[in-house]
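Thread: "does anyone have the structure for this chain?"

Original post by V.I.:
We have the sequence but no experimental structure in hand. Need at least a predicted one for the grant figures.
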Amino acid sequence: MLLKNWVRRTKLFNLGKILRKSRESLFGKVKSLFKGHKIDDELWDELEQILVSSDVGITATVELIDRVKDRVKSDNIREGDQVFAVMKEEIVSILSGCVVSNGVAKKEGLSVVLMVGANGVGKTTTIAKMAHLYKKQGKKVILAAGDTFRAAAIDQLKIWAERLKIDIVSHQPGADPGAVVFDAVQAAISRGHDVLIVDTAGRLHTKSNLMEELKKINRIIAKAGQDEHQSVLVLDATTGQNGLIQAKHFTEAVGVSGIVLTKLDGTAKGGIVLAICRELKIPIMYLGSGQELDDLAPFEAKDFVDALFA
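Reply from O.Q.:
Generated one for you, tokens below.
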């Protein structure tokens, strides 16, 4: 029990560091809002403004406030601190409703993880962090350098593979990404790997031809016998509601099965997590920050809310 409590405290401390700017900028205002404030229309209006400004979005904000109001009325709550506690509980409830996954690879056979996302979201670094995490779980990991449009992307992934001491399959710049992925699947199976993580070009969701290329890669993986693979979307949390739009487009293209939110230690407002869970119901697998291999936290609803309002 002592070890379990220590692990949770350590996790909350790390999450607290990741979410510090979100907490200090806007969500900290929510906590102070309920201190000594009468529960009236003015309070609800102020709460709505803060949540919308925090990238929670109109839909999720209205639902959250309605749920809190119902609880306040049914439980005859009159103290601000109690309302605040109820609000946290309802946020956890909404986040838990999003089928959260920790992204653990299958116990048997090959797990293929297709990584997608727009330019500049931190996808390659996230791949390295996930590979590092799977290695710590005792998995044998291999990478596929499917972003053949940029020579630098291939080189960067090779550097990470060398640093992590794991295999990588790559072709020359300009090669067919589908061919790279096909060869990588065959190599992973023949060499007995547990996890194959596939990098892809940073595709803007507005470029239909690039999205079609992603669909092609998806089909190639399925034809290679890996029809149960994961498609993981890496989103830059600082893009706010634009990230939600990206997620919708990528989901339509490749059926996104999980999301990794990066740069939460930057200017991100944090509320995008709630918007994603409420509107898309896509599992949030990890929260990312920084450039170190261990800067990746598995997403858990209660721990996230506790850290956000600490």
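V.I.: this helps a lot. Residues 111-256 form a domain with the Rossmann fold fold (CATH 3.40.50.300).
O.Q.: and Residues 1-10 have pLDDT under 50 and may be disordered.
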